[in-house]
Amino acid sequence: MQLAALKHRTESEDSFVIDATHVRVRFHSAKNDVEKVIVHYCDNYLPLNQAKTIEMTKIGEGQVEDHWGATLEAPFHRLKYTFEVIGNDGTSVVVGDRAISSDVESALMEDGYYFKVPYCHDIDMVKTPEWVRHTVWYQIFPERFANGDKSNDPKNVKPWNPEDHPGREDYYGGDLQGVLDHLDYLKKLGVNGLYFCPVFKAGSNHKYDTIDYLQIDPEFGDKDLFAKVVNEAHARGMKVMLDAVFNHLGDKSMQWQDVVKNDPSSRFAGWFHINEYPVEPYHDPLQGEGNPQFDTFAFEKHMPKLNTANPEVQDFLLEIATYWVKYFDIDAWRLDVANEVDHHFWKKFHKAVTDIKADFYIVGEVWHSARPWLNGDEFTGVMNYPYTLQIEDHFFKHKLTADQMTKRLTDQLMKYRDSTNAAMMNMLDSHDTARILTVANGDQDLALQALTFEFVQKGSPCIYYGTEMGMTGGNDPDCRKPMDWSKEDGPVWQRVHELIKFRLDHDETFGKGTIKLHVTENGLIEVDRDGIESVKAYFNTTDHDVKIDCKDSFSHDYQNGVLAPKGFVITAR
């Protein structure tokens, strides 16, 4: 048995309280190396001869590990436990808090070998909002969704042409009135969560270079109009999420312009990470101009980075964060460049917004492993790029086999607690990436097969505006074309609508149930979801027809027991 591969961490994604009397534990071993894992457990103050046992279930197979899981009872809200591991080679060890021991009988009767859960504190549990499990998000890039009010169009606005290839400085006149006018459309499509890219006053079409966080950009409307959008969305059962750009300010902001004018004597000098003065003209290292005078988002001179360790900056940003919750009743914040802001600030942010709304949803933009932010006191979830990009690498780019993808996705699920996985925001494209139909080389069946696969995963799925219209687009800014309203109710729209409906019809299982991924002997990807019902989904990513006997609850290209390439069949019972 490979002892070095036996792993477990307390108070982490491997050991977490799920309610006052139950603790979920995970254990990891080398692939195909362990026959069984038995957990010995009891209350911290009971003698070990009263310990109970439970055999762990193999909950998934990763790249190099087998993953095991079990739920332990803690009737007195305390727990100690240890793992008896039996290898395929016949050897047995105890993996405990202090050591690994081959003297199994002795170790099982020694308290020091037991991991401890000192008390199942409700306040320390990682909780995620119930409503998120029942939400399908729709991402709106306001400048390109719909132009409902031509009176607020910027100068040199271009004609609304979905076939255009937008430049970085182009404007098409999309606004909040356009969103309000289409809320019934979004209701008809079936989505019940609206994620808005920034709506605050800024100097660009994308609005990520904020000038004033307390003002709706005049090109989009005003606060009264935004309040109406939120109220009307809520009346239709939709949640509203705004984009918080708190890593940096726009260079046209009052604060930064004061620094430009007054150098170190500016009262806002401590609001930024400034290395030397004067701050203009900017030294761009990408152009070989030496070290920049101040820190920015990437090397974007128009986005000077905020010093979120400064108490004045903290107060400023927390006022903004709470203002839109208190006075406009938004339900969620998506946090731009969230990984580059300090943890200290995000803890304050979490408390400030959840003190107003206990079930507030906080989504961080983190493109890598996000464990440090997901312990219950910072973010609810993150934009799950590391998960969904693996899906693209198999379905679209063929960089991964089906077996490689399922194993990597399983490993990814092991990084987070069950409640966190259920609250991740899953998307296959966004304002920052090429559209899925383009990545799929124009193959609509393939794009919708992958979208369906995303919809049966753990987490809250998100559709980028226009996916339901079969829109194309390369990387930013080409992925930000004006919405193609001519395709409403078309064949692609109908398929996306049916997919959203199927997800929400079974959201109790999709939102809360367990998940297991593997590849069948005949090459189909199988996704097993178990909750109040059993849902099995099969996806054919091979190049040939595959026979399968499966009740058809929802499918594409499945007939007479044969699943065609790019097809799927899902059964729910």
TrEMBL record:
A GO term, aspect molecular function: hydrolase activity, hydrolyzing O-glycosyl compounds
Domain spans labelled Glycosyl hydrolase family 13 catalytic: 139-503
Signal peptide feature range: none
GO biological process assignments: carbohydrate metabolic process
Pfam hit, one: Alpha-amylase
Record keywords, A-Z: Glycosidase, Hydrolase
Protein known as: Neopullulanase
Organism of origin: Lactobacillus helveticus (strain DPC 4571)
